[in-house]
Amino acid sequence: MPRSVNHVASRAKRKKILKLTRGYFGARKNVWTVAKNTWEKGLTYAYRDRKNKKRNFRALWIQRINAAARIEGLSYSQLMGLIHKAGIEINRKVLADLAMNNPEAFKAVVEKAKNA
């Protein structure tokens, strides 16, 4: 009896990955083994960079808060210490947004932290 191989499924699997690698440079888009390796490596980069994105945004928020705090005569660490001591529960994302888009509200938070 001849050997039965499911060519339809294996070809579909290859086509699916080759479709995902469209736009890659050179053999990375049309040579099966190269395309497969490139695509798999891309998945590991995507996983890693989803974590790095959070790290980068937190660093950006801290820089923005620090810049706004310096205008108020405080450093970032002094401001965060005062905010925590005053019991003001506000995260860095919101604080950075206030510093950028609503300086009056940021100043009010700083004054409340100083006076507490």
Summing up helix and strand content along with how strands pair, one would put the structural category as mainly alpha
Distance between the termini: 87 Å
Mean pLDDT: 96
Q: Please mark out the parts with pLDDT under 50 across 5 or more consecutive residues, or reply none.
A: none
Rg calculated over all Cα atoms:
26 Å
Q: Which range best describes the helical content: under 10%, 10-25%, 25-40%, 40-55%, 55-70% or over 70%?
A: over 70%
CATH topology tier name of one domain: c-terminal domain of poly(a) binding protein
Level-1 CATH class name of one domain: Mainly Alpha
* Number of helices in the DSSP assignment: 5
- How would you sum up the major sheet? none
The portion of residues forming beta strands comes to under 5%
CATH homolog superfamily of one domain: Ribosomal protein L20, C-terminal domain
Topology as H/E string? HHHHH
CATH arch. level architecture of one domain: Orthogonal Bundle
**Secondary structure tally: strands:** 0
Shape: rod-shaped
Tell me what you see in this structure.
With 116 residues, this protein is mostly helical. The chain has a domain at 51-116: c-terminal domain of poly(a) binding protein. The chain has 5 helices and no strands. It has helices spanning 7-20, 32-71, 76-86, 92-101, 103-115. The longest helix has 40 residues, at 32-71.
